[in-house]
Design goal:
It holds the Pfam family ABC_tran. The protein is α/β, with parallel strands linked by helices. The protein is built from seven helices and nine strands; from the N terminus they run βββαβαβαααβαβαββ. Bound molecules: adenosine-5'-triphosphate (ATP).
Length: 208
């Protein structure tokens, strides 16, 4: 069974068609980049894959199940997005404890992920004092709380400096499970096994 199977997927917002009849399969352990011009539908596709929003037609299966309908399945998905929410008046650790409780994850995992993203020393600092790079690392920590089998990242290094970008890339490179990222970065594309591109509302396999 593949990690991701997308069949005849279409998404409309009101009367606006974003994409139509999108088909692709991602094998377990594969790293796939999604590319396309601004507004082509990358974020929308990733939100459907992570079970946040419903397709208009067609279906998505993650490990053979529907992410929109299956709460347990969503626990296996780590989603790093621009809209990942952090509480700025709480510390890094307090944020992660809050989300760990929400996800039903053991609190001991909070220390693990803080160390993993190099935020252990800053664990008791308020998020409002964090740089953009630190915030992004904390969002990664949040996405990893449930030790996901699939990592879905929406433009993960957008707006980060060289060190921040390097951290994210190393992380993605060394993540040994399935990864799907939307990106405009050549370096991130090179980390991936395959590249899928949005073109005129459908998706095509691109050679690298
Ligand atoms: N909730 C929504 N309601 C209405 N339209 C939306 C909504 N979300 C996205 N869209 C529209 O769907 C289209 C695709 O947007 P999306 O954010 O998926 O593109 P993208 O490829 O991720 O763009 P970017 O590279 O700028 O992040 C855009 O025209 C956008 O305005």
């Amino acid at each position: 069974m593949p990690a991701i199977a997308v069949r005849n997927l279409s998404k409309k917002f009101g009367r606006k068609l974003v994409f139509k009849d999108v088909n692709f399969v991602v094998k377990r352990g594969e790293k796939v980049a999604i590319v396309g011009v601004n507004g082509s539908g990358k974020t929308t596709l990733l939100r459907i894959l992570s079970g946040q929003i419903k397709p208009s037609a067609g279906y998505v299966e993650i490990f053979g199940k529907n992410p929109y309908m299956d709460v347990e399945l969503r626990k296996k998905i780590g989603f790093l997005s621009h809209s990942s929410h952090l509480y700025r008046e709480l510390t890094a650790k307090e944020n992660l404890i809050f989300y760990a409780k929400l996800m039903g994850v053991d609190e001991s995992r909070v220390s693990e992920v803080l160390k993993l993203v190099n935020l252990w020393k800053a664990r008791n600092d308020l998020v409002r004092s964090f740089s953009k790079g630190m915030e992004q690392r904390l969002k990664i920590a949040k996405a990893l709380l449930n030790d996901p089998d699939i990592l879905i990242c929406d433009e993960p290094s957008d707006g980060l400096d060289v060190r921040g970008r390097e951290f994210i890339r190393n992380y993605i490179k060394n993540f040994n499970k399935t990864v799907i990222i939307s990106t405009h970065s050549e370096e991130e594309i090179r980390l991936c096994d395959r590249v899928l591109g949005f073109r005129d509302g459908s998706i095509v396999e691109l050679s690298r």
